[in-house]
Design goal:
By secondary structure, the chain is mainly α. Among the domains are: 77 residues, no CATH class; 64 residues, Photosystem II 12 kDa extrinsic protein (DNA polymerase, domain 1); 60 residues, DNA polymerase, domain 1 (Orthogonal Bundle). The chain has a two-stranded parallel sheet. A two-stranded parallel ribbon has the order 3-4. The longest helix is centred in the N-terminal third of the chain and has 23 residues. The protein is elongated, with a radius of gyration of 42 Å.
């Protein structure tokens, strides 16, 4: 075996042997360099790849975040709680009805205990709700307010003279707490559109009137004389006449005529609720201005 290998090298000239030795040296050196030198850097990333990688980083960071959302409850006066709010806080319809019946008598609850006495809510629900109750300052500091504002008790004792809202002047309306020149002008403008108010319920459709102000209006005013009320026959009125009616617009007027032509006539309030564009919330008031 040694003879064969020796014979193999003897076939080359001395210069060829030197060349082979150098070749083996280079091969061995490259193998060593491959094992110990750092790997070749990757080709430069394209702009599109960079943009995608940056976007992926944002996605990963968002996934890593755990955000717990909890709706914030702001302090409120329980005297003016709505159906939606009451249901949201866990009150039953019976409990809400008791509060609304109590408020219709123009009475107010002035503490958490009074609220529970009226509504009959459980102790556990009261504890959750009472944290956010906010009563007016004069309720919590009656003595302090009584000493600072002596005219108030005299005004509360005076006899309330109820007037006809359809004969009220701007001066009459401004006397109501919470009503200034702008709101009184808005109420009179609304009355002029209809000729006269048909019901005090229309106050809730006037922009800018808070529930408290509406309560005051109901104490001092009522509908007595409505002979000037502008009525419209919904079965004979033209498209133009219907469009001019304050509660309707052109689109609603068209729907009325379409319904009227398909059903011979509009008979009552129930038919009105079937017409697209007529507010279900206002339909009972709208009907007072219509002739069928």
């Amino acid at each position: 075996m040694k003879r064969e290998s020796t014979y193999f090298f003897q076939r080359f000239t001395p210069s060829q042997r030197v060349g082979l030795l150098l070749l083996f040296t280079v091969i061995v050196g490259m193998q060593i360099a491959y094992q110990f030198l750092p790997a070749k850097t990757r080709p430069e990333t394209s702009a599109e790849q960079k943009e995608w990688l940056a976007f992926q980083v944002k996605i990963d960071s968002q996934k890593a975040l755990t955000v717990e959302y909890k709706s914030k409850i702001y302090p409120y006066n329980p005297n003016f709680i709505t159906d939606y709010k009451g249901y949201k806080y866990g009150m039953t319809t019976e409990q809400l009805d008791r509060l609304f019946a109590f408020r219709k008598g123009n009475k107010y609850v002035n503490s958490a205990k009074e609220f529970q006495d009226v509504t009959k809510v459980s102790d556990s629900l009261l504890r959750e709700m009472a944290v956010y109750f906010k009563f007016p300052d004069w309720v919590n500091n009656k003595k302090e307010y009584a000493s600072k504002y002596t005219p108030f008790p005299k005004k509360e004792k005076e006899v309330i003279v109820v007037k006809d809202i359809n004969h009220a002047t701007a001066e009459d309306l401004i006397k109501i707490r919470g009503i200034g020149e702008a709101i009184s002008a808005r109420i009179l403008k609304e009355r002029d559109k209809f000729g006269a108010f048909a019901t005090m319920e229309q106050m809730q459709f006037i922009w800018g009137l808070s529930p408290e102000v509406i309560d005051y209006l109901n104490q001092y005013f009522k509908v007595v004389d409505f002979k000037d009320m502008k009525k419209i026959n919904i079965n004979t009125a033209s498209l133009k006449e219907l469009s001019a009616f304050p509660f309707f617009n052109y689109s609603t007027a068209r729907e009325i005529i379409i319904y009227r032509s398909m059903n011979v006539k509009i008979k009552d309030v129930e038919d009105l609720t079937k017409i697209k564009g007529i507010s279900i919330e206002k339909v009972s008031v709208i009907a007072l201005y219509l002739e069928f």
